[in-house]
Amino acid sequence: MSKKQLFTLEFPVRCSPGILYEFLSTPAGLQEWFADKVDEWDGVYSFSWNGGTPDKAKVIDKEEEKFIRFHWLHSEKNEYFEFRIEKTEISNQTILVIKDFAEKNEIKDQSQLWEYQVKELFHRLGS
């Protein structure tokens, strides 16, 4: 049984949900900010960094312009990482919500890694 915990990060983004979803759900979009090389075959995405061995993740759920949830093939069955697009009610601002799992003592490091990645995403979006 895994000791990993679910954690959530939220990032306001100045971008339409449609454009943001493309960056979160397509190999070309993910390759812009998330990994050096991204391929997809039959719902399984292959992510490579620095020419290393690819990590594979299966899309387990998605809704166009709302969210996409991946499961790393090497991780526990109940673990996933998710990109969710929400809108605030009052200001109608777009919020990127990232959910991921990490060991309790690794959540801070994992959060910083996501923050770095999201900064790269915002740079690509011009946001």
Automatic annotation (TrEMBL):
Q: List, for all copies, the residue spans of the domain called START-like.
A: 1-126
Domain of life of the organism in this record? Bacteria
* Official protein name in the record: START-like domain-containing protein
Protein's organism: Hydrotalea sandarakina
